[in-house]
What we know:
Oligomer: single chain
Radius of gyration: 30 Å
Strand order of the largest sheet: 1-3-2-4
Number of helices: 33
Shape: globular
Structural class: mainly alpha
Strand content: under 5%
Mean pLDDT: 80
Low-confidence stretches: 1-58, 60-64, 499-530, 716-747
Distance between the termini: 59 Å
Number of strands: 4
Amino acid sequence: MMNAGNIVCSTTFCLLVISKAHCQWFSAADLNDPLAFEEKFVARLKYGQMESRQILERLNGKTLLFELFSNPTSSGNESDCQRSFTKLKDDYKRKERYALRVADSWGKIGSGIELGNRQWMGRYYECLNIQTSQFSGKYFSVTLDIKSRFTLGQGIVVGVCLPNSCSTNQSETIIEQLFNTTAFTLYSPHQPSTYTSLDIATIVIISLLGCLLIVATVYELYLKNLPSINNYGLMEPTRAGRLSGKALFSRILLSFSVKKNTDALLDTSRKVGNINVLHGLRFFSMSWIILAHTFAYGANYIDNGIDAARYFITHWSFEVIGNGGYSVDTFFFLSGLLGAFVGLKEMRRRDGKIYVLVMYGYRYLRLTPPYALCVLIMASLYGKFGDGPFWSNVSKSYRDGCQAYWWTNLLYINNMYPWNLNIGCFGWSWYLANDMQFFLFLPILLYLMRRRPLVGAIVTNIFVLLSMIASGVISYHYKKQPSAFGRGMSSYTAVHTTSLTEHNLDQNLEPNATFLFSQTSLRDGHKPSGWFWSDLYTKPWSRMGPYFVGVFTGLIMHTFNRTVTMKKVLIPLGWMMTFATGLALVYGLFSHIAKGLNFNLHVAAFYNATCRPVWGYCLMWIVIACEAGYGGPITHLLSWKALIPLSRLTYCAYLVHPMILIWMYGIMETTFHFGVPLLSILYGGVLLLSYGVAFVLSVSIEMPMIGVTKILFGKVHQPQSPDLHRQYDRAESDETNPNSDTSREDQ
């Protein structure tokens, strides 16, 4: 049986022989000129005159340590770096174990280049763990500027293991001589772990919060063992009918009790007057969001991007991933629905009065604390959570964005500034900014709907119409196709063409990274692909349609006390139209996607203008029909008691699940092979982990701050009973508060 040394030497020898083979299609000058090589490479490939073997001949041996040993770097007086290489060369020839491990840790050409395998990361931890008296490993990733269809426009990434004694300049010189090119970037992902003042401040804040949770929980257990709470003055009202200072402090402290908040979170009792089908809509929509993000965030880490692209354009079922954006529209709809329904109910209780500033302040304080904590962690400690060849660069990009633009998140303007959301903070929180901006209009609509319901209904639908007009005009002016077409064309191009310039594609088209969410418009004069994201996907004028459809639905539910009587003949017709329309929105574009076709500009503009409001009207039917008793098994499923606690966690799950996905993929040592079964299993794990972390975040900060906010805004008055057990062992209904529409559903 061959030992490890023989295997390495045999592989090295064979690949070295290939690398020295004569290439009939290219001259020596071409091989040393990446641009000239690429030009001829694409030309040969386009006309079928070049085999994939020849790109291997371009790269084979360049990634092998043997070639470096054959031509060691020399710079006059030997430095520590040079001496390490000289020693390594001799030890490799003697088959010393550490030298073989160095060679083994280097990235090497793998199979599947024609399928998009362009990242040969080697073995990061194997390199770093080589610590001997002769050699100390330092890992680098080298990105070679060699672009083709097979590299999907992104170049080749190779992991290399160099002596730790080499400086950055020495390492660059080594790589330049090894690969015979200066068209590369060198990056060392392993950086010394240091704690900044912001890191320490974050640790202190989290520690203080943890201590507060412990104290509050112990305090509640202590109070429950007292024979009479009122004897201690904890529930004593003042002359004005308010709680005394001691009782107020007690209630604020008890808001942080883990036991009380856990009991409230897990309470599955249905409250009278609530719209119970919303629990199922929240949970299933959040599950859909996590599903789409599991596939999208993993696209940068797969080694067969062409396979993934081919799957996307040949399986209609995969459209549920490509059109996952409708799940976000569901939450816009739910937020508008509850804002109107609860607000109108509270205005009726208050004889038509509405406190606008109180609504704004209450909402801000309910949403912001868990959001701000996540932003703080992303800007500080997040990079300490992992390691690997990808992690340092990935976590740094998010950390830098949050350190620079955290204030835009706290002001809820991060969907507007910076315009390029890729450099901002907490990119997925564009939803929260939009929803907060929509909420600013809600008091005006509530006032109109309370005083003049018909006028309020008309104005609300005018907002929907304005959203459609804005989306259509922007789409037509900038020549935007539906987002699914952008993803489909990226995939179609990667599978069926051999040139990155065909079909007027963006020069920066990156199917491997963006085939799931690329927004290329594929028209002359169009903006870069990311502008769909900036112009249409994340802006309030394009996303407010479903929100105001929800507001209109809330008015209907309030006016008819949640029960709208319908003629029997309309019920099956309504359900058929709803299902047909919803399925058409999600799956109806597949025939065009499979063929790489586009709409003409007028049809594309009409689709972009109407698709999201129409989705909102489909949801309106589901809610009204189910609450009126016409939903049958759908009502039972969406109102299932087991979904109530999960629906309460959706806000925190939305905040944390991308952090989990970024971490999960970012700490990988190598790329992985795309496959639906594998990603489905990963999705199940991410779903469970997201809700687990969401539970911790909700119990520790979201629910405590909701309790404190209610107290500060006078929601807690003199109790009807002095029994602390009844006061705190049951959750308050989310929908008995005039501004509670954002406590659970805002995703």
